[in-house]
Amino acid sequence: MRTERKGHTEEENVLVLQGGGSLGAYECGVYKAIDKLKIKIDVVAGTSIGGINSAIISASKSDNPAKDLEEFWLTLSQTSSSPFLTERMRMVSSSIYSAMWGNSNAFLPLWLRPSFGSFYNSPYLYDISPLKTTLEKFVDYTKLKDPTRPRLIITSTDIQNGKPSIFDSKYDNFTSDHVLSSAGYPFYGISWTKVSNRYLWDGTLLSNTPLREVIDASPIRDKRVIIANLFPNTQEELPHNMMESWHRARDIMHADKTDQTVRMSKIISRYLVMINKMHDILESAPLDDTSKKKLAEIEPEFNKLACQRGAIIKEIVRVERREGDSHYLFEDADFSVTTIKKLIKSGEQDAIKSLENFGKN
Fold it and tell me: pTM for the full model?
């Protein structure tokens, strides 16, 4: 008698990358560790800056995506503060610099345009077309058709209907617009992107950890998942002022919330095992013609449930970015060279420790 779920014999390794502005450099370090540990990634999914990192990982022009991803982040980094500043002073000064002058390789404020007057009637403050130019130096979307490259899934939010818009390299022909559509964060005044007559904002508005979207896109194969969590779930110290309150609220909103998804996948798996057992009992039991006809009638629905759905999370490892003593709301706008290199290094170190036993259980 069959005791396993039908059609669920293969596994895939999934990397999920969150949005978080300049904190995405931490994800670069995480991927460097994955590459160093020679962990094969089958699916990479991301939103916002995580979507941009995902695109480089899946479609890098060279055969060394870890190197290309680090080079991308060093391209975005900029020296805008004195090396003698404290860490907090550096974060503050660098984020203010980004807000006022932008980042020539990522986004530019409208007030630096010659047509300054258009700023007052614009639904956004920053143009991210420079990011498109930078991204295209590192990606070749034809690489997504290479079966040895990871499947790419990127999420965004449809402005007009408030629903998720999911792009999947298995079905979609990617362009940089598909990738940038995930990065238009309205609360920072980042512009939206139009793709196929849809106006799209950042995917973090709906979910900053697109694991559920991966399960929906690949509902059969069981998964071993790595999540780069950029925003701490816990913080023992209470906020001291309004700015720290906003900072903590932001962390809570954007932190990984996939525990419920994992629990539901396990519950569904148990139900499917039970359905399979009951189906096998009915198949082997002596049935009259009426019962056989009824069984045949529900067979298509059984196959849809038991064979075409029900992927479970067999393992999940969260690589958690930790904050120091300084809690600063606009830390995700700090593109200083020192911070970017520090984030890459800490992401790699944390991932090496977290992933040393990945896939071995």
Answer: 0.89
Domain extent listing, the chain = 12-254+316-355
Angle at 60 between CA 59 and CA 65, to 5 degrees: 120
The matching CATH number, chosen from 3.40.1090.10, 3.90.1150.10, 3.40.50.720, 3.40.190.10, for 12-254+316-355 is: 3.40.1090.10
* 40, 95, 162, 211, 343 from 149: Cα distances, Å: 10, 35, 31, 19, 26
Q: Encode pLDDT of 300-332 as tens digits.
A: 887 777 766 777 888 999 999 998 767 888 999
Whole-Å CA distances, 74 to 54, 120, 218? 17, 33, 33
- Which residue(s) pair with 139 in the sheet? 60
* 311/305 Cα distance (integer angstroms): 11
224 φ, ψ to 5°? -115, 125
